[in-house]
Each structure stands twice: as C-alpha cells, then as structure tokens.
Design goal:
Number of strands: 15
Number of domains: 3
Structural class: alpha/beta
CATH superfamily of the largest domain: Periplasmic binding protein-like II
Largest sheet: 6 strands, mixed
Order of helices and strands: EHEHEEHEEEHHEHEHEEHEHEEHE
Shape: globular
Oligomer: single chain
CATH class of the largest domain: Alpha Beta
Number of helices: 10
Length: 311
C-alpha cells in the first residue's frame, strides 16, 4: 500500500491594515520573502489597526504588519498605544520608500478631476501637488489602496485616488501622475508583530503557527539587534534624565524616544524607546539599567536592524 503523502501546510497568514495593494501589504511581502516564508503566504486585509493585533492574538494570522513612523508626518501614535495595550512582540522592522501616485482612469485629463480620495496621511503628504488641482476636492478615505478600489468601482472618470503603484495594479487603474509626494525621501517604518512569549489564548479554536517560533528565536539572538520597550517613570523631577543617564553609562545608542500620555493619570507619560544592542552582555546591562530607573517596563521585542538597501 502506498504511503499517504504528507499534508501540505496551510499558507502563512499575514495581517495588515488596508486593502490589497496597501503599503503595509508590500511591507509584509518583503518581510516574508526575506525570511523564507513568502512562497505561499496569504495576506489578510484588516479594516483597523486593532483588527491586525486581534487577528494575531487570536491565531487567525501568524504575523501582523503595522506602520510605526513616517519621515514626513512623524509617528503613527495609535500603534504605539496598541503595542502597549496588547500582549505582542516585534520580530522585525521594514522601511518602505513611499511614492504616491495619482491613480484614475486611463487618459483622464487632470484638469477634469473633481475629487481625489485617499487616507488622510497620504493627502497630507501630497499637499503641494493637490494645490495644483484646485477643482479636485481632497476626500478622506479609510485606506490608500481602498481609495483606489473605490474609484475603480465608481466608474466615475472625474474621480482619482492617491495610492501606490501596487494599488493601481490591484484596482486595474492607470497612473495619471507619478511620485506626487511633497518630499522625495518620504519613507515609512513598519513593525512585524507576533504574540508575546507568555500569551496563551485558550478561547481561540486555532493554534499558534509553528513557523513563528523559529523566527522569534532567530531574530532575538543575532547581535547587533534593535531592542524596543516602553517604560513608565515616576512623575518627579529628573526621572527622565536619570533614565537617559543610565543609557549613556552603558554606551547605548538610543535611536528613538516617543512619549505618550497615560490616559488614567493626568500629565503622566509612557516613553517608547528603541536602541541598538551589540551583544548579549550589553543586552542584560541595558535592561537592568532601565528596570532600576523606571516604575514599569514592558519589552516590546528584539529584532534585526533594517539596513539601507534591504528591499
């Protein structure tokens, strides 16, 4: 009797906020391809950032992709708050050059446009160009790629969208004007999230994807790496300076610090920190220094540093 062939594993599920063709979709593709997971990965669009986190924690998706900061408009603070709220950890970061395209129906004159749809962040990053289209009213939409699909479904040749070239292909539309972003160096940093090591969802009918564990092991042990954490400090003079002095004493390269208010404590703040760690010994020294100088610290992940040209 012939042996039964091994059951083919289900495609790796990757959650992202937006419609197919969104920049988060592309970031997920790059990460899975670089880590040998992209051959049969399935990319799952979500309506909100919360849904991305919940999909990962419910084991519906093995990975989640979230934008963290943009060189033109700064941090996407909603996702910093969600990193604190949910039991997740980061296992990677991706930097994507953001080139916005004006997308519409083939042959449409720009002067005939009456509305341009896109996510508020994209509209904000293309303000100079939009001023050149006084007859076209900017219209906010929940997602850049979703805006392109909306224009396609409308069949209205006076409508256009601002989205990626990737989104234009998904929506079967033409690029009416290329690279309309205000700043040529426009780029977004994305984080890749998985459930934290101590997270167990006993209510979910699904199980964690076994392909995540080796990824966590690989990204958290190869130095140099980036360590991300969030800390709360006593609301007294000098506490932030004391924390920063601790990092100076350990010769730590702090690459980002972001403050966010603590909603249930007026004028108290959480501080999100990213830093470069070059060895296991340094890792322990830095974590000890932070813990001694804070009231609370939550480690958000250890992961490989994104190098220029990695795309």
């Amino acid at each position: 009797m012939a042996e039964k062939s091994a059951k083919k594993p289900q495609p790796l599920q990757v959650a992202f906020q937006g419609a197919p063709g969104a920049f988060s979709h592309r970031a997920g593709q790059i990460f899975t391809e670089q880590n040998g997971l992209g051959d049969d990965a399935k990319y799952v669009p979500c309506r909100s950032f919360d849904e991305v986190f919940e999909s990962v924690l419910d084991y519906r998706c093995a990975l989640g992709v979230i934008p963290l900061e943009n060189t033109s408009i700064g941090s996407i603070v909603a996702n910093f708050d969600l990193l604190y709220k949910y039991p997740v950890m980061m296992v990677g970061e991706i930097y994507i050059p953001i080139h916005h395209q004006l997308i519409g129906f083939e042959g449409t004159p720009l002067k005939s446009l009456t509305a341009v749809f896109s996510h508020p962040a994209a509209l904000d990053q293309c303000k100079v160009f939009l001023k050149s289209l006084p007859a076209a009213k900017p219209q906010t939409y929940w997602d850049t790629s979703g805006a392109a699909l909306h224009v396609s479904a409308s069949s209205n040749r006076k409508f256009a969208a601002i989205a990626s070239e990737f989104a234009a292909k998904e929506a079967n539309l033409a690029i009416l004007k290329r690279d309309i972003e205000d700043h040529a160096g426009n780029s977004t940093r994305f984080g890749i999230i998985v459930p934290s090591l101590d997270h167990k969802n006993t209510e979910s009918k699904r199980k964690p994807d076994p392909r995540v564990a080796p990824l966590v092991e690989a990204t958290g042990k190869k130095y140099p790496l980036k360590l991300s954490c969030v800390a709360e400090l006593a609301h007294t003079p000098g506490t932030l300076a004391n924390l920063l002095n601790g990092l100076i004493e350990t010769h730590t390269n702090l690459t980002k610090i972001e403050s966010r208010p603590v909603p249930d404590a007026q004028w108290h703040y959480r501080f999100f920190l990213d830093m470069v760690i070059d060895s296991a010994d340094k890792d322990k020294q830095v974590v000890d220094a932070i813990q001694k100088r804070t009231e609370m610290v939550k480690l958000l992940g250890r992961y490989q540093i994104w190098e220029p040209g990695m795309s």
